[in-house]
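Consider this today:
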Amino acid sequence: MAAYLVAGSPRGEAELKISRITTWSVDLPLVRPYSLSGGRLKFERLDGTIVKLDTDDGVVGWGEGTPWGSTYLPAFARGIRVGVQELAPAVLGLDPRQTDVVYRAMNLALPGHPYIKSPLDMACWDIAAKAAGLPLCDMLGGRTQGSVRLHSSIPSGTPSELMAEIDINRSEGYRFHSAKLGADVEADIERMRFLDAEMEPGEEITFDINRAWLPSEAVAVLNTNRDINRVIEQPCETLDQHLQLRRLVGQPLAIDESLQGLGDMLRIVETNACEVIGLKVGRVGGLTVAKQIRDVAVQAGIRMNIEDTGSTSLGATAAVQLAQATPEPFRRATWLCFDHLTHNPVEGGVTNDAGFATAPAEPGIGAYPDEAALGEPFAVHAT
């Protein structure tokens, strides 16, 4: 386990400087193949990148970037490692506690590509919290009462296949489910009605379409099932299509994939586009941007699923730290992607406790990759 105790000058009397950046490529097979968007997207493994920042004062920070493949969103997993090589000269020598300064340097060196910046940004926040002697949630606004509710993630399938997955997750304590639909109009009408009727008292279900419906298909499904008042997540491809649908259906809506940065969040608020957002830390560019979006959502009264697109328990724990710093009732749920992986090369971090998780209390993120399990680094950059 990496130490967080700091040798040298008392904090505040000297700068910390990033002295080394190490990246690893991590192959992350899924326990079972996972389909979404009506089955048009199917995945059997994830390609993860783990980043370690060393400082001249001995404090170490960890970050992760694990997109859900390269077909789900504009994110190229192997590009993260090459992107870190591009950013390394701009980041080395900076004080990682100055997270905004580091982020501006990354934006200047490589405009766009937020998913590449996320693991570096996460590692900077890990160092900042360790240097302050605080859990990350206290750096992101302060620990709030209670635990963070978890939701399951149910891949596409027939009604019986969906229910079989839900039953597995019920046995693990989950009472909040996110079911992946988006096949065809008649099939999705049936799936919605079947799953809604199978929910037990106190259970919650979201129907996640992952952009699979055309607006006309979304109107047909949702107005046929207008008596089902469940949250419908990302029914159409674009935010403009979503706004078109918004005028024609009555169910509460969630925006997920169309939220890729602070500008998107501001437009969501301006257009009253939804009641819920899916705030994916890696997709929006890291904790720095995710915190900004979180604060806007709280002011606008919009609830949030705060999580990451895919990750080991390192990325999941960082997301739970942000959720733990988000007041109720705005934190709606998160999910633990690493429960879908065959192995998790990380020590510590969050766990599923009967459908809830609690951010670790130790300084930093509270999760530590096992360097022996990571193997040989992909690249090392040093001053």
